[in-house]
Every structure is written in C-alpha cells, then in structure tokens.
Amino acid sequence: MRAGEITARRISTTSLTYEITFTGYFDMENGKAAADAQTDIKVFVGTVGPISVPRKQPITNIGNNTTKNEYSFIYTFPAPGRFNISTTLDNRNNNVLNIGPKPTQELNFFVKSTLVISAGLGQNRTPVMLNAPIDLAAVGQRYIHNPGAFDADGDSLAYRLVTPQESEGNNANGKDLLYVDPNKVQPLGPTENGAFPSTFSIDAITGDLVWDAPFVPGFYNVAFIVEEWRNGVKIGEITRDMQIIVVEANNDRPKLDSIPDLCVEAGTLIQQAIRAVDKNGDPLTLTTSGGVYRSDLIDPQLAQFIAASPNPAGQASGVFRWQTGCNHIRPEAYSVLFKVEDSPRAGFPNPSLFRKLADIRTFRIKVYGPRPKNVQATPTTDAGGRAFRVTWDPYACQVPGAQIVVYRKEGCSDYQPDPCSPGLPATLGYTEVGRVPVTATSFVDSSSTNPLRRGVKYSYRLVAEFPRPGAPITEPGYLNGGGTSIPSDEFCLDLPLLIPVITNVTVDSTSTTSGQISVKWTRPIGLNPSQINGPSQYRLSRATGLNGTNFTLITTINTQLQPGVADTIFVDKNLNTTANAYRYQLEYFFTNANGTLEKLDTSEPASSVRLTQGQAESKIVQLEWVANVPWSNNNQRHRIYREVRGRPGTYNQIAEVAVQDPRTFIYQDDGTDKYALDGTVNVTLSADSTYCYRVETVGTYGNDRIKPAILLNFSQKICATPIDTIKPCPPVLSLDTLDCSTIAPDAYCNQTTFTNNLSWTYPAKNAQGGDCDPNIVEYRIYYARFADETPALLASVVPPPTPPATNYAHTGLSSFAGCYYVTAVNRFGNESAPSNLVCKDNCPQFVMPNVFTPNNDGKNDTFQPLNCPSFVESVTFRVFNRWGVKVFETTNADINWDGTSSDGQGLPAGQYFYEASVTFQSVVRPGQPVALKGWVQLLR
Question: Would you tell me how many other CB atoms lie within 10 Å of the CB of residue 600?
C-alpha cells in the first residue's frame, strides 16, 4: 500500500443508505503480487464488522508504478449518529524513510473517516478526492500536492496534518506510527530558493500540501485530515494517508502561472487563461480536475478546459470556460485543480533516466446569487398606518426552495457590498423582518414585535437565500449551509408625519419633591391646518421609569395650530427627579367632520436621561447614562458637566464624549477638565469628597422635516464619591497551640466543647513595601473543619481604634481540629486577600492498662482505656491468646472487654495479646488509623 482514503455517498432520500468506498493506491514495482491478490478488504462501520468488501473493476494504472483500486459496498445505518468507518490492509510498501519503528513492509496501513448523520443537519455525504495522491518530487525542488477535495453538499472544508497510523486491537481503531515530518529526515536540506532549512506544511483553507524542498531521495508517507463543516459545526472528516516519491532528477519542474481567485454572480461566463512553462523546453502536458467537470457533483452546466494546440516548446496553455448558473450558488468556493507535467524533450540524454515532474495550481471560484433589484417601499394603511409595503422586481434565480429575506434598520448607509462576502454583515445593524418565497415580489412590514416608529428614517435591503446543493426542500434546515446573494441596494424612507413627535425630555432641576422636566414636541407635520374643521388637542401622559408603561394623563392643551403660539411645550413640576426617570407619551386629537374630537395617533414614548455612577478604578468617578427615546443618541458627542466646588448650581463642561452604539453611555472622570472652551477647572478627586454632575445628550431623528435637527436633553444631577479600589493588606494570623507532650492524660475528661483562640496583627506595609490602608472597619474570620475544605465566613469583628490588632474566640467546638484565615475590610467595602492559613489539630489520648480482674467484684472487672480516651472517632479492637487465635473483637470505643470470648464463654486467666486500630478526630481527612499493640494479664 502507498496511499488511500474512505469516502461515503448517500444514495437514498428515504433511508440512511450510503455507498461507502475505499480508494487504495498500490505499489506495482515492489508488491504487484500482493496488490493483485487484494481482491477484497475488511471494513468496520462503528462497532459493526469486519465487513468483507470486494474490489471493483477495472483497476486503473495512474503511472509512477502505481495502481488505483476501489472497494465499494452499500450500507444502511440503523439511526442517525456519528460513525467511524475504518479499514486495515496488511502491508505498507517497504523502505519508507519517515515512519517506523520496524521495516515498513511489516507495518499495516490503517485509515478511517468520520460520518455524521443528523436530522437537524440534513443529508450529508463526505467530500471526494479528485486528485490522485502519487506524484514524483525532485531533490532540491519545491513539491506541491492538492487532493482536489470536492463537497457536493457545499460544506466548508478545512485541512490539517496528522500522523499516519496502523491498526490497534481488533482493527477498528488506529494508533500513531513513529513518525517525523519529511523535511526533518536527516540530513536536512535547503528550500528551492536556498533558504535553510526546508519546510513542510498544509494550507488549512486550500489544502495545498507543500514541501520546499526534498533533500534525501526515497519514499515518504504523510497523512492529513479533510474536515467537513456546516453552519459552524464539524460534521465529518476524511483521513488521506499518501506517499511522496522523492527522486534525483536531471531536469527542472515546470511551473504554472498563478491564477487569481474569482467571485462571480450566478449567470457569469468565466473564461480564464491558464499557462505553464518549462525553462528546459521540455514538452508539457496540462490537465485539470474538479467537481465543476462532473455531472454527478454539480448541475446542470459543466465546465470545460480547452487546451491550446500546438504549443511552443516548453509551454502549455488553455482556456478554462464555465457558464455559471443559479444552481451553482453556494457559500463555499469551487476548487479547480490544474496540473502540468513534463516529458523528455527530443535529444534528451538517456531518456530512461528522465523523471516526470509536476506543478499544481488551484483556481478558486465563488458563485453568489444576483442582487435583488428595484427595491422600493411605500407606506400602507396596515397596522394603523405604521407599515410599509416593500416591492422588488421578479428575482433572477427562481431556485425551488430559495427565499427572499427582508432586512430593515434605522437610518441609511452607503454600504457597498463585497462580492466575495455575500449577505449582510451583522455590524451594519440590519434586522430580519420577514422572508417570503423567491417567487414573491412584495412584503408588508407591519411587525408588532419590532414596530415601525414615526419620524424615523428606515433602510430596507433584500438578500436571497438558497438551499444547500442537492438538499430536498422538504428536509428540515434545507437552507442551512446554502448560498446567499449580494444584498440589494438600499431604499430609505420614513412614515408620514401626520402626528406630532416628542423632541425633548430634559431635566431642568433635580429634587425629591420639586424636580422639574420640560417636554417639547413638534406640530403635526404633513397635516394642513385648513383641513381641520375646528380645534385640535394635545394630550400628554407620563409614566414612571425609563421603561414605564403606566401612563397617566397630566395635561391637555387645545390648539388651533397657529404660528407663534406656545402650544408645543409643557413644564412638568413637583417630581422626584432624584430617584426616578420619567417617560412621556403624546396623543393628538383633531375635530372631525361631525365636529367631535377624534384621535389621529399616539406618538412614540420618550424618557428623560438617567445618570448613575458605575464601578471604576481608584480615584475615578464613572458616569453612566441611558435614555429610552425614539430618536437616536448614537454617533453623537454628548456633553459632561461637573459642578464647580463652592459654587452650587454652577456647572463647567469637562468633556465631550463620542458615543457609537452602546446600550449605556459611559464616561470616566479623573478630575481633568478636557473641554477648554468654557475655562479649565481641574480637580484632584478624593475618596473623602463628593462631586456633582449632569450630562447633556445630543440626538437626532435624522429627518430633515423635524426641527430642531439636533436634540439636546439634560439628565438629572447626581453627586458621587470616587471609588477607592485599593485593597487593604492581609493580616498576619496566630492561633493558640497545643503541646501534646505536656497535656495530662485526663485533661479532657468529661469535656464536650472546646475553644480556639485567634489573634492577628495588621501590617503597616505590604509585601512589596507599599503602604497598607490603615482605615480598617472590619475583620472577617473564615473557618474550615478540614484542611482540604475551602474556608467559609465564620464571623466578623470590628477592630478597636488602637492598636491595630484584635482577637476572636471560636467557641462551642466538638474538637480543636480546624483551619482559619482572616481578611481585612476597609471603609469602602474592599476586602483584602486572605491572611496566612493556620490549622490546629487535636492531642488524642488512648492509653491501655496491662492487667484486669474480671471476677465480678466491682473492681477492675473490664479491660478499657485508662482515664478517658479523647478525640476518638472509631476503634477496632482484637484480642488473641498466646497461640495466635482471635478470641475477642469489638468496635466499641470504650472496649469494655469482660474477659469472655466473642461467643460469650469465660476465658482462663493468663496473658493475652491485643491490637487496636484507632482513628482520631483530625484536621486531615480521611483520618489515618493508629495501630496499637500490647499485652494484658487476665487475673481471676
């Protein structure tokens, strides 16, 4: 075996039936007999196998002493899933230089492919390799191979190198061979251009495998994986294990001219000149391969390559011609492989020594859908007049199952699409508002979830989406992985302004009880006063909060729509602007033909600007503001004001902030006045002081019929203290200790609770020599029963004014065992890192006597630990007679052996031996048993 790979092709639309093919390349020079005898192979599908698969006929001789053999079988998968398909052939060919460890004819050949079958992904077939994996490489000359992988489903392909494998165990699995990259086989050599050392790599996108350049003649095996991706999900992969034959050559390789990639609209006729030259003047053969030539892979028009004839010496050329069509639209580029190979020229000395060398180029062609044309939108009466009817010309590519997707955004743009990147970039801000079959030519945009707003300019663009190549339109997700068109030109317009629109909601003063907001609006643009039969009326309602919906009527203003009358402003007083934002909504009523007031429409609500303080670094005030308004405050320069200290109510502008498109606008004040036009007032921000601010937003409807064009609105006033984020230093913790050697055996008799006493000091300097924050308001004690636990908060201690040290008694414990650390908290709530971790353990007591007298006289009748055992968790106690026979066993921590055997029989006086396994309560878990052994004299 030289090379091979496994592919799979689904052949049924109603069942999970696939044709699975192994394509193998055999060495006819050194193993013809073995190759001819390989009439079948064994294949595993998942855990099923081995399946015997026969060889197809005929066998193809591809040159370079190599034949191509194909082995195919039909297999129906029981259910969707992820399946590994693998095969093993007994012998690789011999003398491969970069794999081992044993002679390579003793190594088997193993490859596998992975096929994912999923209802959610739709039908799937693996890519096919259209370029044979055997070419000659010449010493000192650049070598290139491309598998010519083509995926008929239009899935994305990616390439990566892996290590060649041999089978392991039952042959369904593989294991890596001992392997080195071909360019690292000693001795090392230079590249074709003389750089050192040579290189070996694969292009992850194009699949070009390049070795620049071989240095040692011989056979080399390499392997790479072709990954198959759909909608960002990897759905399969193929391993190709291939052989590179490096020879000494007394001729130079031919070279193909570079071929630029193309992105074309479906329907374009591609005519691309291809040219190759050979500096030795050798005759050249120019061939090409790719899915675009095969009717089983694309539909309907196939590409052609028309080779020029005759060619001058040392040259070959031709024209690639392909009439693209609507069925060729897909997101992935088509790869067309061109290969040029030389032959010995007339008069070449000793033609038998001539080595045919080759060069490869890949021509990538991306076919995108035509742009929808003549897009227009007009207002309609749907949804109360808040709707547009979008129309367009009949679409050029009437592919069954394709759809027209309608996108809308606020505002207009001059975006020019990139033909190589179809679709609409998300960064443009367009939102899908609907989709219709490709046969449709109109759509009514009256969405209730994303309603249109009066006074706002809207941009519409259309994109066509296509099914995956070959995907039935009855299949779920048939559009997943399909191609798209270039977006249409935009069409911009706004809803007719028959009603007023709110232009200002600005906070005049900030107070909990007497706050004031000015609300302004336009007159009903587009409505002729002469058409009104009598007075009109504005009704203004208010709701509490940025997103409030509990609107309550606060004023009614009658108007004749006469110039110079102040009927488009209302000052809302006695508000709590300190705590609340407020939202306003305007209704417009006109006198109808019956002489009664009739509501025409309701404006979009608009809120006041709400300013808050956010988290920031030390000595900085972070201001954050937001407004829920129908106009746009984005892409403007908002104005920041700080109150002048000592002059209440006097503000100095300190900055202009360019805002793009955040949900909340942000500015960080470090005390520097960055706006000099009204004077520069710099301050040093202190965590002990407060500073007051207002923000003025700048916005616009982007509609030249709405005046004023620029809308200015103030937030409420807030006063803020700079955040101090400097953390205090960790304390240094001590814990009272136990000296077990000095503790009396009966020290803890009858004691059921215990206390640990902690004390700590607070340092003046940190580990780096910096000052520690002296303003500590709290210490937090953390405790864990065991050393392997994370300590949890136990208690808090408020320190005395002086000295900076304190202590804590942890009472009510069942033992001394436990671990502690302490943290310090400053006045801003910042908590230090933990102190040193201190653990304490128990002093266990368990001492045995060496005599007892079980004669029922009430004195020393049982064998038990002396005094009282302390901190004992469990005991296993056994007694043996002098012949080593166990006579008694108990797990009672007090033992209480009364001199009888385990079956209740009294034991004779004499010497007995015991062993005890005692586990004590400890800070470490699991506790390690302590083994105690000794003897005891039983007297009667």
Answer: 16
* pLDDT of 235: 86
Single-letter amino acid code for the residue at 657: V
Which of 234, 66, 227 is CA-nearest to residue 149?
227
Q: Which residues are within 8 A (CB) of 487 and not within 5 positions of it... i.e. 6 or more apart?
A: 371, 407, 415, 417, 422, 423, 424, 461, 462, 463
Give me the pLDDT at residue 529, please.
Answer: 60
At 196, phi and psi to the nearest 5?
Answer: -130, 140
For residue 154, pLDDT over 90 is answered with no
pLDDT band at 530 (very low <50, low <70, confident <90, very high): low
The answer to whether 131 touches 148, Cβ cutoff 8 Å, is yes
Q: Which domains does the chain have, with CATH numbers?
A: 3-247 (2.60.40.10), 255-367 (2.60.40.10), 376-494 (2.60.40.10), 502-606 (2.60.40.10), 610-720 (2.60.40.10), 732-840 (2.60.40.10), 851-938 (2.60.40)
Distance, in Å, from the CA atom of 69 to the CA atom of 35, rounded to the nearest integer, reads: 9
At residue 531 the predicted structure's pLDDT band, cuts being 50, 70 and 90, is low
Pairing, β 376-380 against β 358-368: unpaired
Please compute the mean of the pLDDT values over residues 403-428 and round it to a whole number. Answer: 89
Burial 768-781 (b: 16+ CB within 10 A, else e): eeeebbeebebbbb
DSSP assigned state of 339:
E
Smallest CA-to-CA distance from 125 within 171, 77, 160, 188 is with 77
Rounded distance between C-alpha atoms, residue 911 and residue 884, angstroms: 12
Mind listing the pLDDT tens digit for each residue in 70-112?
999 999 998 888 899 999 998 899 999 999 888 999 899 999 9
C-beta of residue 303 within 8 angstroms of C-beta of residue 336: yes
What's the pLDDT at 791?
Answer: 94
Considering just the CA atoms, what is the radius of gyration of the chain in Å? 43
- Alpha carbon dihedral 555, 559, 561, 564, in 10-degree steps, equals -80
Please compute, for residue 901, the number of CA atoms within 13 A of its CA located in the half-sphere on the CB side.
11
**Residue (of 848, 849, 826, 721) closest to 780 by Cα position:** 826
What pLDDT band is residue 623 in, cutting at 50, 70 and 90? very high
* Residue 259, CA distances (Å) to 59, 262, 362 in order: 34, 9, 7
Please compute, for residue 200, the number of CA atoms within 13 A of its CA located in the half-sphere on the CB side: 19
Q: Which of 563, 608, 664, 600 is nearest to 454 (CA)?
A: 600
Query: d(Cα 43, Cα 6) in Å, to the nearest integer?
Result: 10
Token representation of residue 901: 């055997």
Strands 515-521 and 502-509: antiparallel
- Strands (DSSP E) found in 326-385: 334-342, 358-368, 376-380
Token readout for 602 is 């309701």
Q: How many CB atoms within 10 Å of residue 849?
A: 13
Cα separation, 117 vs 754, in Å, equals: 65
Q: What percent of the chain clears pLDDT 90, i.e. is strictly above it? A: 55
| CB contact at 8 A, 523 and 515 | no
Q: Is the pLDDT of residue 170 over 90?
A: no
The overall longest dimension of the chain from CA atoms, in Å, is 129
Long-range contacts from 738-745, C-beta under 8 angstroms, 24+ separation = 738/816, 738/840, 738/841, 738/842, 738/843, 740/843, 743/843, 743/845, 745/845, 745/847, 745/866, 745/867
Report the C-alpha gap between 480 and 466 in whole angstroms. 9
Backbone angles phi, psi at 607, to 5 degrees: -105, 165
Per-residue pLDDT band at 803 (split at 50, 70, 90)? low
